[in-house]
Amino acid sequence: MSQYTTYDKFFNTEEAAPILAILKQHAIPFEFSAIPKTVDAVIAGGQPSYLYEVKISPTQFEPVNRLLRDKIKVNLDELDPDYYLFSFDDFELVEIINNPDEWGRLDFVIARKILETRDIVYTTEELDVIWNKKIEALARPESEEKGWVYAGYFFAFTGGFFGVLIGLVLLQSTKTLPDGRKVYTYDEATRKQAKTILFLSLIVFAVCLTLKLTGKFDLFFLPVINT
């Protein structure tokens, strides 16, 4: 099993070329491959489908982030005049600078370059501050909507199997930050609820399975259903 983690995704190989060139230049091991369409469609959730991805070791995320920020060079005169970022106003371009994780690395560099032509210049120190604040925000665990917690308890008491699945998802889901760190997706309160859901689900599932195997399942549940 690969120890590499997805670092970035691309719509085409040309878009990936600048990043791959820097990885090769600095002898950083990576994997570059097409994304299976079925998997990508699920992950994208209706968003434009990425076709390729580059994977690197999580320990290399932060060094590569800095390398790409400092080493990727773009000549605006060589870009297609219809390139969509040229139509962005200053506010929209600043949004790209403030949310680099939501945009491709190349778009970040292009946005920064366009802003420089408009006398809006970011120093390395200012970019470091922006990046650290973004990482801090992304690292905060989420509080799951009550709907999934309620659904977990419902399924826990009505057979247990789906309750187990929901409990495991809420308890074990993680996310990889742009600096390579892996953290739990949900906050401690949600994960405590998930442990309870998982515990109850396993008990109910074991009871139902035992009753089914001993032929007492229908005898136990039919009177309840008929009432």
Task: Provide keyphrases for this structure.
227 residues, mainly alpha, 3 domains, three-stranded antiparallel sheet, 10 helices, disordered C terminus
Overview of the molecule:
With 227 residues, the protein is mainly α. The protein has three domains: 59 residues, no CATH class; 67 residues, no CATH class; 81 residues, no CATH class. The chain has ten helices and five strands; from the N terminus they run βαβαβααααααββαα. A three-stranded antiparallel sheet has the order 1-3-2. A two-stranded antiparallel ribbon has the order 4-5. α4 packs across α5. The protein starts with a strand and ends with a helix.
Strand content: 5-15%
Fraction of residues in helices? Answer: 55-70%
Q: Strand order, biggest sheet?
A: 1-3-2
Helix segment tally: 10
Question: What count of structural domains?
Answer: 3
**Largest sheet: number of strands, sense, barrel closure:** 3 strands, antiparallel
What is the CA-based Rg, rounded?
A: 24 Å
In whole angstroms, how far apart are the ends? Answer: 52 Å
Structure in a nutshell:
The protein has 227 residues and is mainly α. 57% of the residues lie in helices and 9% in strands. A three-stranded antiparallel beta sheet has the order 1-3-2. Strands 4-5 form a two-stranded antiparallel ribbon.
